[in-house]
């Protein structure tokens, strides 16, 4: 039970992470975005 729950939570976190990160990586150059964030 506990192991199954941990696996489910891990997959959920990975899915959320992918959903958040993938559009940023595909649409914007990450380094350019980071420089924009730093310089304001």
Automatic annotation (TrEMBL):
Superkingdom field: Eukaryota
Keyword annotations: Signal
Signal peptide positions on this chain: 1-18
Keyword hit for Signal: yes
Protein name as annotated: Uncharacterized protein
Lineage of the organism: Eukaryota, Metazoa, Spiralia, Gnathifera, Rotifera
